[in-house]
Amino acid sequence: MKKQAPIGLFDSGVGGTTIWKEVVALMPNENTLFLADNKNAPYGGKTKDEIIALCERNTECLLNNDVKIIVLACNTGTTNAISYLREKYRHIPFIGIEPAIKPAALGSVTKKIGVLATQGTLTSELFQKNSNSLAQNNGIEFIERVGEGLVKLIESGKINSPEMTILLKKYLYPMVEEGIDYLVLGCTHYPYLLPQIKQLIPENIQVIDSGYAVARQTKNILSQNQLLNGATEKPKHRWLANGNIEILKEFAPDRNDLEISML
């Protein structure tokens, strides 16, 4: 496998671009290929079998483009499908993303942690196993909220809409009343809501997501496999969409080395 091969990433939509930005910031020499499966967004309300089938299709697409590693930049995809993907595609490393509940548990004083995520993530076997372990061993109480409707509004370009504010208040205010001191964002779409979230909750509540940790783990695995790109030529970045390409363009950074196209 060539070191110059791109890092592959996929998500149900634009949320994965929050992970892409962290990856590019940490590894500026790397080529990347990001796939937004926004034709099938959101994944949160789908069955496990449906999620696995979509993730398998996305994986095949990235493999056909000769990527050297695959970042499953979707919490719902990771918690439901990554074990299956690692078993089937053993020749390529996979990096997943899960809600950052462990660092929140280690830092919490009130022992009450809010988790805003999709239904598919919160009901997954992997999340339930990890959260139950922390609850039993660390005395943590998790206040979970399904962010129903948030991804659809983001994918529709309605981040700053009145509808978004109404939903955020509905999900966040009960957590604040419960006394949380950490809020874990369990969906890669949600970092785009940080400005509104921080306006709605007290300053003492720390908001964390997994973006940087995923980028760091990706770099570690590439290094272990001697796949880091040491070339000095300008990297190439591609974003692909199979549904709405215009929304992808809205979230794209202003850089001349990024190509955005339909799949």
Automatic annotation (TrEMBL):
Enzyme category, top tier: isomerase
One Pfam match: Asp_Glu_race
GO biological process, one term: cell wall organization
InterPro entries from the UniProt entry: Asp/Glu/hydantoin_racemase, Asp/Glu_race, Asp/Glu_racemase_AS_2, Glu_race
Residues forming the catalytic site: C74, C187
Catalytic activity: L-glutamate = D-glutamate
Pathway field: Cell wall biogenesis; peptidoglycan biosynthesis
Gene Ontology molecular function, alphabetical: glutamate racemase activity
Alphabetized PROSITE patterns for the sequence: ASP_GLU_RACEMASE_2 (PS00924)
Keyword tags: Cell shape, Cell wall biogenesis/degradation, Isomerase, Peptidoglycan synthesis
Annotated residues for binding of substrate: D11, S12, Y43, G44, N75, T76, T188, H189
Enzyme Commission identifier(s): 5.1.1.3
Role this protein plays: Provides the (R)-glutamate required for cell wall biosynthesis.
UniProt similarity note: Belongs to the aspartate/glutamate racemases family.
The protein's name in its UniProt record: Glutamate racemase
Lineage: Bacteria, Pseudomonadati, Bacteroidota, Flavobacteriia, Flavobacteriales
